[in-house]
């Protein structure tokens, strides 16, 4: 029996979509992980339950529409068709262009009603994150936002942690993580994101609709206080011995608790 429920709510005209619907993250375990073997002769990360929990905990939000980006490309003079040059540095000026699916003039009403992305993107000015690694990674461009059509509701006292898909993120871009009190917030949560400029000096790509981009992990809010303690070698050694007596899957068999996300 499932005691807790998380609800994803969208505009009725968007509800028929399939590729873009949120799903339990456990349905998107990467192929490389599935292909791994884990046995006495070949011990791999497939036997690490803490790692598996990152791949199966929570829910996935997917790109609501195609997003084509041309990141850190040469800025072109519309009159000459040539790259524009910064007179002070002598270097080519750079540009960050984007286009979403469903962004023509006839679609603007639908875009607004469904909280989808249009011709003009919402963004955070880069100075709002001045000094952070996000600005450097994003090559000093402003931080664009992905508008999300889903309102997320959790039971009283429960919030949601929003992060890039854990241990399975898209290497082209990632959202900036955050926590929202989704039991009280009755609107969509939108996500600022940065392009992976650490890997891609320039990037022209289309992030397809249905691409997973946010992992949603609900949790109960509580008050915590840190304390320090000590232990001794005898206590640690006793635990270590009982763990090492089993060659593989000791943590899974003795410690791990199965979680249900449906």
Verbal overview:
- By secondary structure, this protein is α+β, with helices and mostly antiparallel strands.
- It has a domain at 61-147 and 171-176 and 189-210.
- Helices cover 16% and strands 24% of the residues.
- The chain has six helices and 14 strands.
- The strands form four sheets. The protein has a five-stranded antiparallel β-sheet, with no helix packed on it. Strands 6-7-12-10 form a four-stranded antiparallel β-sheet.
- It is globular and about 75 Å long.
- The mean pLDDT is 91.
Compile the SSE list and pairings.
Blueprint lengths: L6 E3 L13 E2 L6 H5 L13 H8 L2 E4 L4 E8 L19 E7 L7 H7 L8 E2 L8 H5 L5 E4 L4 E3 L4 E6 L9 E3 L2 E3 L10 E5 L7 E5 L4 E9 L12 H12 L5 H5 L8
Antiparallel strand pairs: 1-8, 2-3, 3-14, 4-5, 4-13, 6-7, 7-12, 9-11, 9-14, 10-12
Proportion in helices: 10-25%
Beta-strand content bin: 15-25%
Summarize the helix and strand pattern as letters: EEHHEEEHEHEEEEEEEEHH
Q: What is the helix tally? A: 6
Give the N-terminus to C-terminus distance in angstroms: 11 Å
Strand order of the largest sheet: 2-3-14-9-11
* CA radius of gyration: 23 Å
The profile of the biggest β sheet is: 5 strands, antiparallel
Low-confidence stretches: none
Structural class: alpha+beta
Keywords for this structure?
alpha+beta, four-stranded antiparallel β-sheet, 6 helices, 24% strand
Quick structural summary:
The chain has helices at 31-35, 49-56, 108-114, 133-137, 233-244, 250-254; strands spanning 7-9, 23-24, 59-62, 67-74, 94-100, 123-124, 143-146, 151-153, 158-163, 173-175, 178-180, 191-195, 203-207, 212-220.
């Amino acid at each position: 029996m499932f005691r807790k429920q998380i609800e994803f709510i969208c505009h009725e005209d968007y509800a028929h979509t399939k590729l873009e619907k949120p799903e339990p993250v456990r349905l998107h375990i990467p192929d490389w992980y599935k292909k791994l073997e884990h046995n006495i002769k070949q011990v791999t990360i497939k036997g690490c339950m803490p790692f598996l929990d990152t791949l199966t905990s929570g829910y996935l939000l997917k790109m609501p529409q195609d997003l084509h980006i041309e990141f850190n490309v040469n800025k072109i003079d519309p009159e000459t068709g040539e790259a524009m040059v910064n007179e002070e540095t002598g270097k080519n000026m750079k540009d960050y262009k984007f286009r979403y699916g469903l962004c023509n003039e006839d679609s603007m009403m639908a875009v607004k009603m469904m909280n989808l992305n249009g011709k003009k993107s919402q963004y955070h000015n880069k100075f709002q994150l001045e000094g952070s690694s996000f600005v450097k990674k994003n090559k000093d461009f402003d931080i664009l936002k992905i508008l999300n059509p889903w309102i997320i509701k959790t039971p009283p006292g429960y919030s949601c942690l929003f992060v890039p898909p854990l241990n399975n993120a898209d290497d082209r871009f990632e959202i900036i993580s955050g926590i929202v009190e989704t039991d009280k917030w009755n609107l969509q949560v939108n996500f600022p994101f940065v392009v992976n400029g650490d890997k891609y000096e320039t990037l022209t790509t289309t992030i397809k609709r249905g691409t997973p981009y946010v992992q949603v992990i609900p949790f109960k809010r509580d008050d915590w206080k840190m304390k320090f303690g000590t232990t001794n070698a005898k206590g640690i050694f006793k635990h270590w011995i009982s763990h090492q007596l089993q060659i593989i899957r000791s943590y899974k068999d003795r410690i791990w608790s199965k979680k249900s996300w449906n």
